[in-house]
Amino acid sequence: MRKLDRAFYDRDAQLVARDLLGRYLVHRVGGLERVGRIVEVEAYLGPHDLAAHSSKGLTPRTRVMFGAPGHAYVYLIYGMHHCVNVVTEAEGRASAVLLRALEPVSHLEGRTQGPGLLCKAMGLDLRHNGADLLGDDLYVAEALPMPPLRIVRRPRIGVDYAGHWARRLLRFYIRDNRWVSKP
DNA sequence: TGAGTGATGCAG
DNA sequence: TGCATCACTCAT
């Protein structure tokens, strides 16, 4: 499978979010290839987006989000779950796309419906924070040929604190796909 | 609907 | 320093 290049990520976060749907997240670990088809994502637009971590400004935690596109931003939430994002747009824009659910393809353990379960199934944790998605261990691959997708837009999950930003339609998923976390 | 869990960021 | 908060999940 062909790896997506830097230019793919160096675009508007909403475009990247939509285009990630149907493509494959790959994690090579212990000689095994863990693969899942991306079926649900959320876009976080940058420091002006009050739901985005980067709205707190440049901190040790958000450093990766402010960095170059095509890197993984992984963080720990509620003391037990990990979430993985891909950094988008030019360095400093601090936008990213959260991966929320996968359709299992190979070597995934357990459920993949939800950002925490996704990371658990893929074996992703804080060690992967800042990982370059153009490396050989963790990347997103083309789906060829790419079938036409029916994409649904909804408000993002769990960001009610963000005022009107909580109502923006920045969550995208593949319609009628059984692996979506909250249809 | 509420508990569990610990890093994070801000107030002091 | 201390404390409220949190892009979640699972059992009631």
From TrEMBL:
One of its GO terms (biological process) is base-excision repair. Gene3D superfamilies: Methylpurine-DNA glycosylase (MPG). Its EC number is 3.2.2.-. InterPro entries: Formyl_transferase-like_C_sf, MPG, MPG_sf. One of its GO terms (molecular function) is DNA binding. Pfam families: Pur_DNA_glyco. The keyword Secreted does not apply. Keywords: DNA damage, DNA repair, Hydrolase. NCBIfam families: 3mg. This is Putative 3-methyladenine DNA glycosylase. It comes from Solimonas fluminis.
